């Protein structure tokens, strides 16, 4: 990286639970980059989720959305706090991330599931099934059943209640996320598997049709296959290395990526990038966050795994700033630290050295 003059504007939103602890470790990496790679960050911090509810009475303020638009990228921690479980839906901490995705139009959530050599034994599957696993799940994030109307809980004439959510996808929403998946596949092993439930869902039928059309029109060089979501869950556990890029809707992507995380050893290992459309000014809104939530059961104990947060920063460097060498350095540092035997509790195995959040973060920076 050559000497860079204009500071890179990052909005940093640590959130709830373990969010602030793991963000501190990503901060160490940012400080290292400033010191050693001639880059300057202009960091703005703000509250989201339960932390924002406690201070401002809302999970996210409009001002935070505006700050996100004004930034080069958003680095997000995690949201969720059991204290706010019994409030109305619009007062849940999780609304913060859903609203950020919606307002910034962040429609493509890239969730890589990669097995580090040192962690093959930490996987829930046998080492020979997961060694070298490297898949990319592309999850649609602003449509589908999370946002479709009608939705709500209504009381029926007999006094019983009915909860409603609706799965809705338009051709445009499917086309743009399919393009992201095909583009990514071209830079990888050139294979896309599109996942839906077209045997029982109209939206799944349209999903399959539209992905097939986009493929036929623009990406004939990429190998395309289709799979039902239930079969995909089974295949991910049976033989995950058959996949390269998976593209799917909001709900299936959420479920399948959590499943895939266990193939890598822990939910604490998986980073993500959520990308929007390139704007007229050439900027592309983007948010980077671990796929895991706030883990309130271990918050404040200094034991959370900071790797997903640090790898999310590596994705930010790669996708928003085109700092490929620096992203590679971070990923290699994580691999080396794991190879040296350091483990947080979630990836601990016999004979390894158990460490807390800060020691893991420091070791990655030192490496
Ligand atoms: N870092 C991810 C996070 O905080 N997740 C909490 C959550 O509930 N997210 C909903 C979603 O990813 O759709």
From TrEMBL:
Keyword terms of this UniProt record: Amino-acid biosynthesis, Branched-chain amino acid biosynthesis, Cytoplasm, Leucine biosynthesis, Magnesium, Manganese, Metal-binding, NAD, Oxidoreductase
Cofactor comment: Binds 1 Mg(2+) or Mn(2+) ion per subunit.
Catalytic reaction list: (2R,3S)-3-isopropylmalate + NAD(+) = 4-methyl-2-oxopentanoate + CO2 + NADH
Domain of life: Bacteria
Isopropylmalate dehydrogenase-like domain mapped to chain residues: 9-364
Annotated Pfam families: Iso_dh
Known cofactor(s): Mn(2+); Mg(2+)
Amino-acid biosynthesis in keyword set: yes
Annotated residues for binding of substrate: 101, 111, 139, 230
UniProt GO molecular function: 3-isopropylmalate dehydrogenase activity
Swiss-Prot/TrEMBL site (Important for catalysis) positions: 146, 197
Positions with a binding annotation for Mg(2+): 230, 254, 258
Annotated compartments: Cytoplasm
Pathway assigned to this chain's UniProt record: Amino-acid biosynthesis; L-leucine biosynthesis; L-leucine from 3-methyl-2-oxobutanoate: step 3/4
Enzyme Commission (EC) number: 1.1.1.85
Subunit structure: Homodimer.
Function, as annotated: Catalyzes the oxidation of 3-carboxy-2-hydroxy-4-methylpentanoate (3-isopropylmalate) to 3-carboxy-4-methyl-2-oxopentanoate. The product decarboxylates to 4-methyl-2 oxopentanoate.
Protein name: 3-isopropylmalate dehydrogenase
Source organism: Acetobacter suratthaniensis
Highest classification ranks of the organism: Bacteria, Pseudomonadati, Pseudomonadota, Alphaproteobacteria, Acetobacterales
Gene (name only): leuB
């Amino acid at each position: 990286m050559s000497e860079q003059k204009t500071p890179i504007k990052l909005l940093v939103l640590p959130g709830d639970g373990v969010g602030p602890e793991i963000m501190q470790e990503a901060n160490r990496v940012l400080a290292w980059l400033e010191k050693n790679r001639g880059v300057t960050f202009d960091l703005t911090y703000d509250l989201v989720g339960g932390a924002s509810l406690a201070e401002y009475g809302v999970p996210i303020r409009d001002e935070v959305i505006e700050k996100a638009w004004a930034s080069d990228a958003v680095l997000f921690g995690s949201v969720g706090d059991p204290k706010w479980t019994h409030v109305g839906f619009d007062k849940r901490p999780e609304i913060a991330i859903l609203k950020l995705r919606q307002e910034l139009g962040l429609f493509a959530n890239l969730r890589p599931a990669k097995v580090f050599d040192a962690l093959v034994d930490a996987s829930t599957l046998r080492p020979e099934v997961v060694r070298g696993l490297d898949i990319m799940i592309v999850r649609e994030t602003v449509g589908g059943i999370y946002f479709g109307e009608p939705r709500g809980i209504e009381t029926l004439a007999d006094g019983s209640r009915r909860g409603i959510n609706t799965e809705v996808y338009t051709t445009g929403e499917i086309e743009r996320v399919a393009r992201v998946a095909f583009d990514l596949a071209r830079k990888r092993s050139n294979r896309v598997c599109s996942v839906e439930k077209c045997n029982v869902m109209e939206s799944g039928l349209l999903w399959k049709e539209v992905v097939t059309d986009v493929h036929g029109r623009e990406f004939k060089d990429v190998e395309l296959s289709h799979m039902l979501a239930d079969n995909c869950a089974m295949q991910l556990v049976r033989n995950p290395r058959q996949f390269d890029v998976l593209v799917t809707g909001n709900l299936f992507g959420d479920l399948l990526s959590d499943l895939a995380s266990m193939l890598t050893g822990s939910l604490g290992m998986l980073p993500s990038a959520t990308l929007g459309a390139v704007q007229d000014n050439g900027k592309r809104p983007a948010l980077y966050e671990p796929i895991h939530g706030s883990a309130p059961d271990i918050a404040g104990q200094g034991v959370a795994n900071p790797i997903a947060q640090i790898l999310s920063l590596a994705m930010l460097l790669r996708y928003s700033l085109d700092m490929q060498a620096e992203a590679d350095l971070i990923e290699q540092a994580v691999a080396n630290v794991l190879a040296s035997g350091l483990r947080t509790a979630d990836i601990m195995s016999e004979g390894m050295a158990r460490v807390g959040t800060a020691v893991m973060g420091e070791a990655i920076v030192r490496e």
